[in-house]
Design a protein that fits this description.
With 648 residues, this protein is an alpha+beta fold. 34% of the residues lie in helices and 25% in strands. It contains 17 helices and 21 strands.
């Protein structure tokens, strides 16, 4: 007893002079060596026989992956399997693409399929009294990881960035990244070449000029022997705004403002540590570590997420810089599908109250799981490029400026109009929330046997009160290609006079716009109230819709939600909009990235209430009804905007 107690005491004493990071490293290395010994014993056992036993082989794979995870300091407790409703895939053998997911369950010799077969990887539901049959399968993104894994890494990063050693490394990385950003923002050819999406990077010139800002990053491609699975994306865009530079800096460094104003691209942003010691409101030298997740304007496009350092600095009396840089070298992860190289903006004060904003986006990403219909939209930089970020910033600035001007007593922006704009803003943020990929509530792939297939259609459950949803609901989405310009499609969809041509729920009815509030300088950027009238009785309103439409240089949106007439009247009489439920449906309209303005991508998102729905159950009648609405809407829009004589 005494001996054991003394040994235990000595064991504890060996940690007393260690930092928390050193303790984690020490324990991790010890456990890693133990697992390596177990792994070698299993390999010897397998090698001893003429046939490899599948169960033992799978255990070797599991331990191999666990050893790799422990080697980078990650504490995993769930054997690193992804949890998806009614299916889980083992980390060692993830599907190679979305198409493979549709084949899950065909090969029971595979580890992932063995796990899936025990709990059914697909839902086969039938509509009562009909032959309509639908199949719902996991729509899984390779950029996502299990909830426990992400929570553990967030905790590990949060603890680590508080240590002095990590602070010094992160600050050094941020300063180097800021210097690179400042140079990339002002250099022209041969470093940057003009293109449709703004400017794209010459990778060979980049390496020649800057080398590697982070030694962990592989060298950018400049030879045929390059084998890095992550592809480089880089773009640059410049715009002028009538705003003080420090206000843009504050927007980007204040996490609440950043998440709200850029919510059409930012799914989630969490500050894990603040490393600077500046006073509150002083952003010169401010440095923070963040976990961020970005989404595109189509839910078919995988999210991008990473840990990054965000650093702001006053470069001179007339210029500020805000830069992001990935912390991959400090917190390596074998599952990484996205690395953010120095990206951000240079903000220069100009005369007449203007400032020049130059935005640079530079990253490495795995686009192998992007569906074919969205491939060029993503790889051309339209999805996550500098033009998309900067056009969002410009649009929000114009919107807020326009509202401030309308508040002038001479222009009479009333309280009820202000409340209506607030409700519309909440509707838009809920729409983007529905578009994003959620860890806890994943999109599922839908395929019906007797309906026309329009690329990929996906569906997910929305729980009650999520984004002001008044009850359990289902959201379905699809992205289609239409051979005409985005502006023509936008004008067609936002015009109340053409609504009955594409909205099958308004077909045969008269649609009237009863109120319109402009919220930008671009024609068509407005919030409106639409009333759908009965064809038999024009004085009877069948339903009331709140609609917001706006267009930027990079994308366009038309979003709407049914709202009770009593709620609209309450808001227009000065009531509070905070308790008004909204269930947005609508469209995002984007260039396809390949043909300029000749072909557009239109994402259709449709939402309905369904009290029988749950994360594990999608009622068959609802799935089929939503699918028919999506497909019929797609046909109607195409017929309404495409000249049949020019379709070829």
């Amino acid at each position: 007893m005494g001996s054991n107690g003394e040994e235990k005491k000595d064991g504890n004493d060996e940690y007393q002079d260690m930092s928390i990071v050193e303790i984690i490293d020490y324990c991790t290395n010890a456990r890693y060596e133990e697992i390596e010994r177990e792994l070698e014993e299993m390999k010897s056992y397998i090698g001893g026989g003429s046939g490899v036993q599948s169960e033992v082989q799978r255990e070797v794979n599991r331990i191999s992956w666990k050893a790799e995870a422990l080697q980078i300091g990650c504490i995993l407790t769930k054997h690193c399997s992804i949890l998806i409703p009614k299916i889980s895939f083992h980390r060692m053998d993830p599907p190679e693409g979305i198409n493979n997911l549709s084949d899950s369950g065909r090969d029971n010799n595979d580890q992932g399929n063995r796990m899936a077969s025990s709990s059914s990887s697909t839902y086969n539901v039938q509509t009562s009294g009909s032959s309509h049959e639908s199949e719902i399968k996991p729509f899984w993104s390779r950029t996502e990881v299990g909830m426990d894994f992400e929570r553990d890494r967030n905790l590990f990063v949060s603890v680590s960035v508080g240590t002095e050693a990590f602070k010094i490394k992160i600050l050094d990385l941020a300063i180097t990244a800021m210097n690179e950003l400042a140079n990339m923002a002002i250099e022209n050819e041969p470093l940057w070449h003009p293109c449709i999406a703004g400017r794209i990077l010459n990778c060979a010139e980049y390496i020649k000029k800057f080398g590697q800002v982070d030694s962990h990053f592989p060298v950018l491609p400049n030879a045929e022997t390059y084998t890095n699975p992550l592809q480089t994306e880089a773009s640059r865009e410049t715009r002028f705004l009538a705003v003080q530079p420090v206000h843009i800096v504050e927007l980007l460094m204040n996490n609440d403002q950043y998440s709200h104003v850029l919510s059409n691209m930012v799914s989630k942003a969490k500050v894990l540590g603040v490393l600077s010691t500046q006073a509150q409101g002083d952003y010169n030298g401010a440095l923070q570590v963040m976990a961020v997740k970005f989404h595109a304007s189509s839910p078919l496009v995988p999210n991008r997420k990473c840990y990054l350092a965000r650093y702001s600095r006053r470069l001179n009396n007339n210029a500020w810089g805000v830069v992001d840089v990935s912390l991959q070298s400090l917190f390596p992860n074998p599952l990484t599908r996205y690395r953010r190289r120095p990206s951000g903006c240079l903000i220069e004060r100009f005369r007449d109250g203007l400032c020049k904003v130059t935005w640079v986006e530079h990253c490495e990403v795995d686009n192998s799981s992007v569906p074919e219909v969205c491939r060029y939209f993503v790889t051309s930089g339209h999805a996550y490029g500098a033009k998309q970020w900067l056009s969002t910033l410009v649009r929000q600035h114009e919107r807020l400026t326009h509202i401030r001007v309308r508040r002038d007593p001479k222009l009479q922006l009333s309280t009820e109009e202000a409340n209506l704009l607030i409700l519309a803003d909440q509707m838009m943020r809920n729409f983007w929330r529905n578009m994003s990929f959620l860890r806890k509530n994943r999109w599922m792939l839908v395929s019906l046997s007797d309906a026309e297939n329009i690329h990929k259609v996906i569906i997910r459950f929305v729980k009650e009160k999520e984004g002001r949803c008044p009850g359990p609901a289902l959201v379905m989405a699809a992205t289609i290609r239409i051979p005409t310009s985005a502006r023509r499609i936008f004008n067609f969809l936002q015009d109340e006079n053409s609504r009955s041509k594409w909205d099958i729920l308004s077909h045969g009815h008269v649609v009237q716009q009863t109120r319109s509030i402009s919220n930008g300088c671009v024609p068509g950027n407005h919030v409106s109230i639409l009333e759908v009238k009965s064809p038999e009785d024009p004085d009877r309103t069948v339903k009331t819709l709140l609609q917001e439409s706006f267009s930027t240089s990079a994308c366009s949106y038309v979003t709407f939600a049914p709202v009770e007439a009593s709620s609209i009247n309450m808001i227009l009489n000065g009531g509070d909009s905070d308790n008004v439920p909204v269930m947005p449906s609508g469209f995002s309209i984007l260039p396809d990235g390949l043909t300029g303005d000749e072909v557009s991508l239109v994402t259709i998102i449709f939402q309905i209430l369904d009290s029988a729905a749950s994360p594990m159950c999608f009622p068959a009648h609802s799935v089929y009804s939503m699918y028919k609405v999506i497909t019929e809407t797609a046909k109607a829009i195409t017929a309404g905007v495409v000249d049949p004589y020019n379709m070829g």
